[in-house]
User: Fold this.
Amino acid sequence: MGFTFPSDAWIKELGNQLNRSASYERSAKDWEGDFVFVVEADEAYPETAYLFLGLHHGKSTGAARVESEDERDAEFVIRAPFSIWRKVIEGNLDPIRGLMTRRLKLSGTMVKIMRYPKAAQEIIACCAEVPTDWS
Amino acid sequence: MWHFVSPQIVFGEGALEALDELRGWRTSRALVVTDPTLLELGLVDRVTAHLDAAGIEAHLFSAVEPEPSLQTVREAVDVARDVEPDWIVGLGGGSPMDAAKAVWVLYERPDLEVAEINPFIDLGLRQKARLITVPTTSGTGAEVTWGIVLTDTDEQRKMGLGNRENVADMAIVDPEMASGMPPRLTADTGLDALTHAIEGYTSTWHTDLTDGLCLQAAHDIFRYLPRAVEDGGDMEARERMHHAATAAGLGFGNAMASMAHAMGHALGASFDVPHGRAVALCLPYVVEFAARETPERCAELAQRLGFAQADGEAGACALAREVRRLMAEVGSPLSVAELGLEREEYEAQMEKLIDDAFTDTQMVTAPRSPSYPDLRQLFLCAYTGETVDF
Assistant:
């Protein structure tokens, strides 16, 4: 049985996957900064959802679906429609390319993110490990 | 959705004369960003003579060092703010051209720090000046790419910067400007171009628009580089190499380079190995590494170049074999040991090498993504020259 995206269970499972990944841990060993992923409503999903992911020194320190972008303090906010997130999570859109073409929109210090491209790739690799239901 | 970015390119014999006819933009002052060797060789005079002919007052910043530092860029920006140029001319190999791109951005955007030049923001360039690039080597491709590589001397680390907006307005690709390169520099820069062509073709970001450029560039480099190294006066070889380097630049500049660059950047930053030699040295090991699990693109390229008929691992390994053959033919080292580095000294830097390569921006486009232990093994193979068989 899979985890429905973008549910609380899904983001918690992503946190678990990250905490099992030696590659992620190594690539983000100095990383400090939490994220909120804003999943905007589109024709494939009816409401906007907010997923918080705490990340510190190569580990996930917390993960939850939250009620708003501001409910938890996060240094970075990435927003995109549901269908774009699906492409990223299924590996059909490289997240760096998504940011470069503005299909993913980021608020936060891009300079910091630019130093951890491999970590971004490892997070996507972990997303692929989460059995996901899209309905 | 993706973008293909390119300057206007004026190329071939006599291309420098394009400077005589600069129009469509203010033409009062230019700042030429270059290095002291080119000043000494008289190549800077050739450019300023054409700027004079166009009625443009030329100013110089000629202190760009190989692998330019943030400090050098900041000094050049101060000069730009004094001169207030309408044109910035990046003249030289990759170092002066990359420095010129950074100077241009920071001259236009004094609110930015060097490290803030990234692909995800709007820069709003071309309010104060425009950029011309004139390569004097046949390798870097920096005349047509938007990437900028600078060195943070405090952290002893290469920084990959750039934004699509900071691609030059005009690239002047005149083979005469590279005709005086000595054989060693011809080989190093030519192998840099080969690495761009192969990595641009095999990158996970390759596109229909970049494949042809990379393929043609690789074909011409295999054919003409030995001639250009053997006889610097062979102007047919010089011209084909000069154009191939620009074609490879367009290819990889729009598809990204990959793992040989990530490893080569790390090697170059730790041991002061010239960029072209460092990335080319890593290339056959990276191709062999890809060959075990993701051989398709390497094998396809080998087939298109006539090096192999086989698909899969055998085809990909044929590409690695031909790269080594070419490197040997032009007298380039095939291993780190052949660079003259002591193994003890090399292994003492191993953690930094791996960390730097692992987190390099170019690593994200590798067809086969290495683990940390994989990278250790790859760096060890690159030292000894052993074939990669994992």
